[in-house]
Design a protein that fits this description.
single chain; Helicase, Ruva Protein, domain 3; Tetrahydropterin Synthase, Chain A; 3-stranded antiparallel beta sheet; 11 helices; translation elongation factor activity; Transl_elong_EFTs/EF1B_dimer; UBA-like_sf
Length: 260
């Protein structure tokens, strides 16, 4: 077997990078079994210092509830493993059908045993990081978007159709807004942004400095508040224009693999 095929096989077995696999094969003179054992051992030792940063974001719903769940592992190789995928589905189903959003309460003895057995089988740490469970109410629409199981969003909008709500969920994935409305920014956040803008202004008259701060701050507030953002499907309009006049965004959630 040539070096390229060995590297590919080693990468498929460990989920690690090309150069890491190449160095391991060089170290063990092409012995793939020794290279696999070495990489898995070293990778596990290093990963104990960090929160697992791969995994799956799952969105699922019933007639009355919406769920978004993030379960983490250490490599993309394991995140694609059928046993890991089945575990994610099992956790999602139990949360949804028992109406339990508290992770500690959700994990009874059996589910925790399943997690520990999976850790042993796959040789990676596995954690349930985040769980959101939302109840549906009359006149509220829940939009959702899941991008390749790595980014997920839910948005609750009053008096809105599902297509528009889903488009706004996609917007949340693409732009990662801080708040819904400008008024939602805290004084501390605004003060921090002003300080940042000021730190990047050099040798200007005071009246010019004040004007720059005002313009840059307004730009920042618009770009980071959902309703004031340009719509990603049509940048000539803002999200506030895309919504009907009697619609109101109530709350949104955004998950990104490996992010707190």
């Amino acid at each position: 077997m040539n070096n390229i095929k060995l590297i590919k096989k080693l990468r498929n077995s460990t989920g690690l990078g090309i150069m890491t696999c190449k160095k391991a094969l060089t170290k063990y003179k092409g012995n793939i079994n020794l290279a696999i054992n070495y990489l898995l051992t070293i990778h596990r030792l290093k990963s104990k210092e960090n929160i697992p940063k791969e995994g799956i974001i799952k969105i699922k719903f019933s007639k009355t509830l919406f769920l978004m769940l993030e379960i983490n592992c250490e490599t993309d190789f394991v995140s694609n493993d059928i046993n890991f995928i089945r575990f994610v589905n099992k956790v999602a189903n139990k949360s949804l059908y028992t109406n339990q959003k508290n992770i500690k309460k959700l994990f009874d003895d059996k589910l925790e045993l399943d997690r520990k057995n999976l850790i042993t089988k796959l040789n990676e740490n596995i954690i349930v990081r985040k769980l959101i469970l939302i109840k549906k109410y009359i006149n509220n629409t829940i939009g959702y978007y899941n991008h390749k199981n790595r980014l997920g969003s839910l948005v609750i909008i009053k008096n809105c159709n599902l297509q528009i709500a889903n488009d706004i969920a996609m917007q949340i994935i693409a732009t990662n807004p801080n708040v819904i409305y400008i008024k939602d920014f805290t004084n501390e956040e605004i003060k921090k942004e002003k300080s940042y803008i000021l730190s990047n202004i050099k040798h200007k008259p005071l009246n010019i400095i004040n004007k720059i701060i005002k313009n840059k701050l307004q730009k920042y507030l618009n770009e980071n508040s959902l309703v004031n953002q340009s719509f990603i499907k049509d940048n000539k309009i803002k999200i506030s224009n895309y919504l009907s006049h009697n619609s109101k965004i109530i709350k949104f959630f955004r998950f990104e693999i490996g992010k707190l």
